[in-house]
């Protein structure tokens, strides 16, 4: 929540600057702690995210890509960020990588896509599909953590190194950490390759297949 507070404070300072203030006292910021708490329903949380302008990504987005799926899902997938197709449609994983993810869910886990929940580290598309900056990721992180808190998944699959890093704080290379089950307080976390990586490296599909078999055994 600290990152959200800092972002709100910075936003207010920029607003004061635009109004002509050159110097101001820190005491001008008197936001009540309760006003910084995120909503306790996914519907209200999504509404707040849709109006978010706390980082630079909000300036170039077409749509906020909040996430979708079963609000009581046992299994949650978390990717890096929206791509061009996702940005235009406002839904996660609907491009080529999304089609591959759907096939993995259906053909390996024997689940329907609507049985799981799918989200990303950042809710807005980074320009040219670049990796989100630490500032962007940390600013958006409270939304994702609140989604996890509300959905209460038992298993979270981090799709790619970026998603794994921001969910765990671990910077171990994805090639060394993929498929390893990490027991957290409220859920089990596992990293695997991002579907977009599989499109570029089809030979890695067998590794993801093995990873998904582990997830299937947990389910």
Could you please describe the fold and organization of this structure?
The chain starts with a helix and ends with a helix. Helix content is 43%, strand content 11%. The model is unreliable at 26-35 (pLDDT under 50). The chain has one domain: Uracil-DNA glycosylase-like domain (Uracil-DNA Glycosylase, subunit E), CATH 3.40.470.10. It is built from 9 helices and 6 strands, in the order H-H-E-E-H-H-E-H-E-H-H-E-E-H-H. By secondary structure, it is an alpha/beta fold. The longest helix has 18 residues, at 134-151. The protein has a 6-stranded mixed sheet, sandwiched between helices. Strand 5 (181-183) and strand 6 form a beta hairpin.
H/E topology pattern? HHEEHHEHEHHEEHH
CATH class: Alpha Beta
Amount of beta strand = 5-15%
Rg from C-alpha positions? 18 Å
Tally of separate helices: 9
Identify the strand order in the major beta sheet.
1-3-2-4-6-5
Summing up helix and strand content along with how strands pair, one would put the structural category as alpha/beta
- Topology-level CATH name: Uracil-DNA Glycosylase, subunit E
The CATH architecture term is: 3-Layer(aba) Sandwich
Shape: globular
Proportion of residues in helical segments: 40-55%
Distance separating the two termini? 31 Å
Tell me the domain tally: 1
Low-confidence stretches: 26-35
What is the typical, i.e. mean, pLDDT? 89
Annotation, overall tally of beta strands: 6
How many strands, what sense, and barrel or not for the largest sheet? 6 strands, mixed
**CATH 4th-level superfamily:** Uracil-DNA glycosylase-like domain
């Amino acid at each position: 929540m600290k990152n959200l507070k800092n972002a709100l404070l910075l936003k207010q300072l920029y607003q004061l600057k635009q109004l002509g203030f050159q110097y101001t006292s820190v005491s001008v910021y008197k936001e009540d702690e309760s006003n910084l708490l995120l909503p306790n329903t996914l519907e209200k949380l999504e509404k707040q995210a849709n109006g978010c302008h706390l980082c630079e990504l909000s300036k170039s987005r077409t749509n906020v890509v909040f996430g979708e799926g079963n609000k009581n899902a046992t299994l949650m997938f978390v990717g890096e960020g929206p791509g061009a197709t996702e940005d235009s449609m406002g839904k996660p994983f609907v491009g080529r990588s999304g089609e591959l993810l759907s096939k993995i869910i259906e053909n390996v886990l024997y689940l329907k896509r609507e049985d799981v929940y799918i989200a990303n580290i950042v809710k807005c598309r980074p320009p040219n599909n670049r990796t989100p900056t630490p500032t962007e990721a940390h600013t958006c992180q409270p939304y994702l953590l609140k989604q996890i808190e509300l959905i209460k998944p038992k298993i979270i699959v981090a799709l790619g190194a970026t998603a794994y890093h921001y969910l765990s704080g671990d910077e171990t290379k994805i090639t060394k950490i993929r498929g390893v089950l990490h027991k957290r307080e409220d859920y089990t976390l596992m990293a695997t390759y991002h579907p977009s990586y599989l499109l570029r490296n089809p030979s890695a599909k067998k590794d993801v297949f093995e990873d998904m078999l582990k997830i299937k055994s947990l389910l």
